[in-house]
Protein: 4Fe-4S dicluster domain-containing protein
Organism: Microlunatus spumicola
Amino acid sequence: MSLREALGRRLDPRRGPDQAFTSVEPGGPAVRAGWGEEPPPRKGFFTDTSICIGCKACEVACKEWNGVPQDGIFELLGSSYDNTGALGASTWRHVEFIEQRKPLGGQTTGVTIGVPETAVSAGVQLPDTGAGSFGVTASSFGTAGAFDTIPGPVTGPDHSGIDLFGSLKPEPVAKQQDKALVDLGMPAFDLPSASPDAGERTEFRWLMASNVCKHCTNAGCLDVCPTGALFRTEFGTVVVQDDVCNGCGYCVAGCPFGVIDRRIGDKNQPKDAIANKNHGIAQKCTLCYDRLGEGLTPACAQACPTQSIQFGDVDELRERANLRLADLQAAGVAGAQLYAEDPDGGVGGAGAFFLLLDEPEVYGFPPDPIVTTADLPRMWKNAGFAALGFAAAVTAAFVGGRR
């Protein structure tokens, strides 16, 4: 293969010839990595957050199978029931608890409180359509689209401008400039979601999602690794080789999702303790590479009781995700959307993608992730031209000085 052909394999025609690090091979990332023209089907995860119950069975199964040290079990955050906090070197699966000051549809809780709390909508007005509020219950949420509607208006705040899962319904284009702010569900230490008149506690919902490495098609961590410790498997996943990693941390800065990290360890425990396993080495989800080789389902997906985490061929999972999204939107869940599944996206489509019930920022995801090495070829080209120009100027100065 000629050099031109070799470089051509790394070029993405949608992004231009300068961005050699962002390529999409027709046969998938495993073909580009040299696994032949017909590698096994690309494997990945589809996480349907609408049916996640926050049980953390996936976290436990991941730690048990991979021998990942405990992280945050005894260190309660104080601001959330989520005690692990975020993905890291010792948390390869992380179940997020997003506590939002939003109602679940238009239903009222019937729970009153006797102490004043922070107003829900301080400075933020929910859309007022002039219609009454109708109660909705998810008692029959066994099948997508099956919701029981309580006829007639009920007392309480007007939530008619909000969908069944608490997301704002789309507004006319003319009103976009007045769009309400997105509640990111940031942790707080006060009692959540009281109505402004300290009467009924209605403005509150939990969103739960099991976060994990995205196993990107265009993986920034893989691009910047200087030792080859990170490699692309025949299943299209990205895995760290513990015995090759030198702990430089370049991959940590190269991940647009903040997934990978170096394990700190515990100096108060013996060196051979599990807490100090792979101390100083970059660690992240491997999509249970050892299990894939034996034809087994990854531990987290195997343990999920609601099938919120679905494992399979990425192409089939994308079809399944689009069907599920259509069902939710048909049921009135206007905020439902897919995240990181688009092959035309900034990371070339992720091997682990999500169905969200609100904006990506609410879940702590970047809204428009782009592989961090996308502009490296152009940057090196510009640096080369600058160096040539500088060398030419220095040469001209010396030649002119001798005359």
